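The passage that follows is intended for readers who have already worked through the single-chain material. We present the inputs for a multi-component assembly, then the predicted structure in tokenized form, and finally a short commentary. You are encouraged to pause after the input and sketch how you expect the pieces to fit together before reading on.
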Amino acid sequence: MKDLLIIDNLTVSVGTKLLVNRVSFEVGQGKIVAIAGGSGSGKTTIGLSILRLLPSALSIEQGSIIFEGRHLLGLSRREMQHYRGKHIGMVFQEPLSAFDPLFTIGQQMDEVLSVHTPLSGPQRYKKILEVLSEVELPDPLRAYRSYPHQLSGGMRQRAMVAQAIVAGPSLIIADEPTSSLDVTLQVKIMELFKRLRDKNMSILLIAHDLGMIAHLADEVIILHQGELVEKGEVGKIMSGPKHDYTKALIEAFQ
Amino acid sequence: MSILRVQGVSKSFKDFRALQDVSFSLEEGDNLAIIGESGSGKTTLAKMLMGLIEPDTGSIMTQGRLQMVFQDPYNSLDPLWSVQEILKEALWPGPVDQLRMEKILEAVGLSPEVLSRFPHEFSGGERQRIAIARSLLASPKVLILDEAVSALDTLVQKQIMNLLRKLKQDFNLTYIFISHNLRLVRQFSDKIIVIYEGKIVEQGEIKAVLHSPLHPYTRELMQAAFYSKMGKE
Amino acid sequence: MKNVVKHQSRIQLAFASFRRNRVAMLCFWALMVLYGMAIFAGFICPYSYQDENRDFSYCPPTKIEFYDQGHLSQPFIYKRSLTFNDIHRRVYVTDHAVRYPLRFFNNGRLFTVEAPGRLYIWGADARGRDIFSRIWYGARISLSIGILGVLISFILGLLIGGIAGYYGGWVDSVLMRLCEMFMMVPGFYLMLALRAAVPENFNSVQVYASVVIILALIGWASLARIIRGMTLSLRERDFVLAAKSLGVPDIVIIFKHILPQTISFSMATLMLTVSSYILAEAGLSVVGLGIQDPIPSWGNLLSDAMEIVPVIFAPWILLPGLFIFIAVMCFNVTGDALRDAFDPMFKE
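Having made your guess, compare it with the prediction:
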């Protein structure tokens, strides 16, 4: 099966400093691929590069990003907007910045659907409520009507996942999606990601928690200070790490 | 003689009951973990132990000084102050003991040359070390660690946890380790208190509590912790 | 060889960033020039601000000659005299026969001419007073009033805002209602009302002091609110809690932790407030309620320019307006640049 996403020799810099140094990997369809690394490893930068959401001080020096056969880096901004939300969804680390505080969750998700799909008003409403209950929000109707600040941190995070998947993208980029959640909620979100993966959605998971990665991902890429250190199937890497950094990461869990 | 005794403490904010009838005691040399979700009341409890908030009912009796290390390394040091001034504040109002400051810096794994530098020049882990040094300079008997490693990377977390173990011995400290991460707590503490919706639902030696948990919330926490342990359960 | 890196505090880094902003530095130096000229007005200006000569009413700017019949020579000016043409309009006739050489460092002034010659670099006003001199003497008033007013506003704002924000509760409510009372009245009218309360027989120094206080009173409230807002958020930060748990008393926390953070941001607001005070003083003086003649301020110099006839025939009397514009612009640009330079500090 052809790979959904191919990253080839991606290099990103800020000024003279290299944040990402010639990183290459692939994400197949229906797979959860994790990018693991500490702060400064470049993992968030890679996630932002795919959707071209990098701050202006950063520049992509070289490399290519191929999604469903198309070279994303060559697209214009308007063409990229078409991809965001419809084909690639993104879940950010900080739920407060993902939502506009002036609109309800329902309104914002409705906007996403009306831009990307031909669904009618009632159809969109139904779809949104479906997705909101899929992310295990206890009261989807209340969540629909609420403003971001009216929801707890955990609910906001789930709503953000909902907004990312509502238009039916084939790839989700999730950047530390559970970092501001308690462990019990983390488990729920992980179960949700597994269900999405079983429905043939691919997930690029950016995290530093190897435990969660071990339990959730199919493949893992280890990054250290912008360089790819090791990559492969999760089981193989965990049982037989080759690189010192990988060994240190695994050992931190014992 | 307990070093800390909390009896029947309750606290409400407007119509939200943060803590209800919380009682426990702490002996010298203990390593107590307080586990709970955010919103469970554990930070309110920590602030009350520090005397920053008054309980509505109940009493808190302490023998000896308590100090606290906060969760966010980017917020707990005044960004306009040098490390020297930050540490000096811990000695307030007493005299500035340069030698002692340098010794404590060494104990937390930092060189004395950090004194002339400013917080924004340090990483999260290094800032927590500075925060720990500041607490130690105040010569506390009890150190409250309020999610002190939660904002750090896993590798750095391990380093800081190791440091804390060593400091406990060197400085004869009693710890209250507040967290929502059972995996960390299991390797670190001897006793545990589980707080759920403002009430204590479990209390006792860690091994005993985790062997036979009483409350469904504790069981949920354990499941999540097992999840994190590389799926090897 | 070990690289010695000087560790800079956030404040030093912010100033370094400010210095890299070329436009802002240009404005800053322009302000330094203006203030320098104001301070040394007594040396730079050929005449005192009161020196009048009705024979030279509305005299146009004097041309300084450097060539004498084709040869470079010591600078001089020709004599000029007032006549009236056939429709009774003022005309100044130049007499090439009489010259007055420029004298340098004469009588404690940089350059003058011997009487009865008159040197009007930027022209004369209705009474024959030198506009150039009056502008720089006027700068002393206009530029200093803004700064002094801001200093007082700032101290008031810091104290009231800091206390209100830190203690909250009824203290905060009372102080903020007080602020709102001051902010309710439109600035210019409040200023007029306060000015009306100043006794008639005040001499010029007292009037000056009154204007300074009046300006401070119209401006402190918005500053206090800004500082109160910042204090409210700062007092929740962990390093404040840490200080409290170390036993540091509240007053010390306010002055050593909270206010320093507000000051760096306030600096930008202060610069902008100075420019509004300069305009306020000009506004007061133009309508005759500020500094009184003969003491010049840019505002009362402009009140001479309020009639169309003199403006058409002696446009140089509008020059004070240009300087007000330059000063206000420079303060605004510097203030904005300062705010940008200190911004990252607050985006932690």
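Commentary: The mean pLDDT of chain B is 89. The beta strands of chain B are 4-13, 16-26, 31-36, 57-62, 66-69, 142-146, 174-179, 191-196, 199-205. How closely did your sketch match?
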